[in-house]
Amino acid sequence: MRLGFEHILDLRGYDHILFVVALTIPYAVREWRAVLVQVTAFTVGHSVTLALATTRVVRLPTSWVEFLIPVTILVTALVQIARARALVPDAAADPATEFRSAPLSSPTTWGLAFGFGLVHGLGFSNFLRALLGAEASLLVPLASFNVGLELGQLIIVALMLFVATVGLHLGVDRRRRVVAVASVVAVVSLVLSILRLPM
């Protein structure tokens, strides 16, 4: 559990942190239900492949997994930018509610979160398998590692919601914030994708 917790919060593995950031950029505390849908979809996705890949039921070359992870971050960031830019601002709207003119959670958004969670689970499994080696029983270590991942992920989500909520109360325009943060995430993930391109 401790290793899972430390792994997702380790700044040397910031790609997973970037994905959670990209996933939760638009949301504030009052939209916790929409956040719950996104995060749950991601959790289910990565839990499935974490179990399958750690037990060697599914195998994918590490180089491709490491390449696909920043690609999922890039796509998520671009989706957030497109959603933010597509909104028509309401002059009378409270900045805290301007995103309500478009659904914060939809089959497209949570479907992407689930699908990309499958990719990230493969990345987590490479780390866990390297730690466990030839250990006979994987069930308890696998479950504990996954719980640790989720606890770490919740800290990132809580921090993002707090920052977004403070920004809204200070009158920071949500659309500009989303576009700005997502653009930075997109550039970083694009560079990572290029650097990790399988040769």
N→C terminal distance: 35 Å
The tally of strands reads: 0
The main pleated sheet reads as:
none
What is the percent of helical residues?
A: over 70%
Helices and strands: which structural class? mainly alpha
Characterize the structure shown.
By secondary structure, this protein is mostly helical. It has one domain. The protein has helices spanning 2-9, 14-24, 32-54, 62-86, 107-132, 139-169, 174-195. The radius of gyration is 17 Å and the shape is globular. The two termini are 35 Å apart. The mean pLDDT is 83.
Output the keywords.
73% helix; single chain; 0% strand; 7 helices; 199 residues
Topology readout:
Elements: H1 2-9, H2 14-24, H3 32-54, H4 62-86, H5 107-132, H6 139-169, H7 174-195
Helix pairs in contact: 1-6, 2-4, 2-6, 2-7, 3-5, 3-6, 4-5, 4-7
Brief account:
It contains 7 helices and no strands. The protein has 199 residues and is mainly alpha-helical. The chain has one domain.
